[in-house]
């Protein structure tokens, strides 16, 4: 999973940021076009509660100002995302860093 490095504004396998990673994944796996930024992706999704999360849903965080980070939910509180320090990686929603910054979750339309 961690072959792609983090690259702010990046959308390729050589370097990707969080929203570019999610945009590419949604297109490749679900055939769904998402907007480019985490904030725009948050607006595109149908809001769901954390208890409703299922594989493929998006999870959103405030890491700088407002909706500024996004990942794709896997299961058992795990999500995949592009991290500034680790590249593409899997993290846990229960980790204190992510738990404090969790904003909400969303489901892609028609999924």
Task: Describe the 3D structure.
This protein is of the alpha+beta class. Helix content is 23%, strand content 31%. It contains three helices and eight strands, in the order ββααβββββαβ. It has helices spanning 18-30, 38-44, 96-101; strands spanning 11-12, 15-16, 46-48, 58-61, 69-73, 78-83, 87-92, 102-107. The strands form two sheets. A six-stranded antiparallel beta sheet has the order 3-8-4-5-6-7. A two-stranded antiparallel ribbon has the order 1-2. Strand 4 and strand 5 (69-73) form a beta hairpin. The chain is globular, with a radius of gyration of 12 Å. The relative contact order is 0.24.
Summarize the structure.
The chain is built from three helices and eight strands; from the N terminus they run ββααβββββαβ. By secondary structure, it is α+β, with helices and mostly antiparallel strands.
Salient structural properties:
111 residues, alpha+beta, 6-stranded antiparallel sheet, two-stranded antiparallel ribbon, 3 helices, globular
| Radius of gyration (Å) | 12 Å
Structural class: alpha+beta
How many beta-strand segments? 8
Oligomeric organization of the protein chains: single chain
> Element order, helices and strands?
EEHHEEEEEHE
Which percent range describes the beta-strand content?
Answer: 25-35%
Strand order of the largest sheet: 3-8-4-5-6-7
Rough shape? globular
Question: Number of helix segments?
Answer: 3
Ends distance: 24 Å
Show unreliable segments: none
Major sheet description:
6 strands, antiparallel
Helical amount = 10-25%
Mean pLDDT: 88
């Amino acid at each position: 999973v961690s072959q792609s490095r983090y690259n702010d504004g990046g959308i390729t396998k050589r370097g990707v940021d969080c929203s570019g990673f999610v945009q590419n994944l949604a297109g490749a796996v679900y055939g769904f076009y998402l907007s480019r930024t985490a904030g725009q992706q948050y607006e595109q999704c149908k809001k769901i509660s954390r208890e409703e999360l299922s594989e493929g849903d998006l999870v959103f965080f405030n890491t700088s100002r407002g909706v500024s980070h996004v990942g794709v939910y896997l299961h058992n509180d795990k999500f995949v995302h592009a991290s500034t320090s680790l590249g593409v990686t899997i993290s846990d929603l229960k980790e204190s860093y992510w738990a404090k910054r969790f904003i909400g979750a969303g489901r892609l339309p028609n999924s």
